[in-house]
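From the pipeline queue, job 12 of 40. The input is one protein chain; the requested action is below.

Action: predict structure.
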Amino acid sequence: MLSEPQPRASTFPSSSCEGDAVPVRYGIVGSGMMGQEHIRNIQLLPGASVAAVADPDAGMRAMAAALAGPGCAAFADHRALLAAGGCDALVVASPNHTHAPILAELLAGDLPVLVEKPLCATVADCRRVLRLAEGRRAPVWVAMEYRYMLPLQRLIDEIGAGTAGRPRMIAIREHRFPFLKKVGDWNRFTRNTGGTLVEKCCHFFDLMRLLVGAEAVRVYASGGRDVNFLDERYPDGTPDMLDNAFVVVDFANGVRAMLDLCMFAEGAHWQETVSVTGDAARVEAFIPGPARFAADGRERPSEIVVSPRTTKRPVREELHTDQSILQAGDHHGSTYFQHVKFNALVRQGGRPEVTLEDGLKAVLIGAAAEESARTGQPVTLA
């Protein structure tokens, strides 16, 4: 019988490389908002530094180099960065549609690579990248930051420990702010991003697969572009990114999962809610949005709630992440916790926790959801 969960202290893990005298020098390819978030988080790691940045936009390039500090070299493209040498690992944080051509060149080398999600904007490009990486010895890690949020790590642990019993249903809600302004407005168009359900939601489809332990077999989505960017016009056309959707995913082991996405709900206290319901209990993680979007500008704790069927007494616990980590980015500390593990991989070797195949399968579900939303028909995955 399931016993009532006991509150557990939340820990602030230190880098496994603490005290290690060997430095790790990073090269950042793409120095916009996410590239700069990576820089701030790398700076929190003992023995780590950003040695070089590459970006075709001079303003972003200069901003990132200044953020990285004295000695950081700046290049107009990744080829010049590679030719200059001096890096031990690479982070790709360029726009989605540039990942495939950039990775085609980076994978020919022997440096460890952390590539931002989505792996590529299309399934075809993801498959090409996997073929190019065959036989490569240096690791490639796909940056699925949401796995590493403290409340979601706790949720994963609880499900692994059997707290929910046998999981049967997963419900994920993200109610957040609209897509932010990016250089060249590349993120306004599906042709550059893969669509909202690839660009934004591959995180959640990756999380579903991780929690379920099986592959998706059927996807149904209903979505629209109803509020955001309706009055924007560009030389190449009008924005076509969905700003709200429901997505249902059926998995091979009978578990069903649902995503509820709204990108004009920045007034909500909880930005993400992830709920796993099994035959013994429901386990939920509640995650607030970034402090800079809160009315008072203050960081807020996350929560984990376990609701056992036997006692019918939910147990709620606040989880606190170190303020310096929260302030290093918009992803509730997850970028830092991910970098701790990637840094250890660079130093010690091993296998990435999020593989290229994981990246492909998350994009595959997202692309199927985009197709379903366009056609109104469910999409069956082979």
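Job complete. The longest strand covers residues 167-175.
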